[in-house]
Amino acid sequence: MGEEICTDLDYADDVPLLASVLEILVLALEILHEESSHIGLEINWSKTKLQVFDDTSTPLSKVSVLDHDIEVVDSFVYL
Questions:
Q1: Could you tell me where the DSSP H helices lie in the chain?
Q2: Handedness of CA 14, 52, 49, 32 (dihedral sign)
Q3: E strand or H helix at 68
Q4: Which of 6, 37, 75, 78 is the most buried (most CB within 10 A)?
Q5: Can you give the pTM of this predicted structure?
Q6: Maximum CA extent, the chain
Q7: Percentage of the chain surpassing pLDDT 90?
Q8: CA dist 51 to 38, 47, 61, Å?
Q9: pLDDT digits (tens, 9 = 90+) for 25-49
């Protein structure tokens, strides 16, 4: 069997998404927004945060997704 990689950890209304490339994470958020809107759910963009673990890249302060600025944080509490 192939190795399975977990890219999200859904629990109740919290969904941490994991990606090794920023562009993939932005695409995942766009898809999550589109698919969840079909069933009447919305992303709370003001509560959406981005944590970067790559210390070799240029530090970001925010990332834009669908015209919403996502804050980049050093840490966050999950549940």
A1: 22-37
A2: negative
A3: strand 68-73
A4: 37
A5: 0.76
A6: 40
A7: 42
A8: 28, 13, 10
A9: 999 999 999 999 999 989 999 989 9
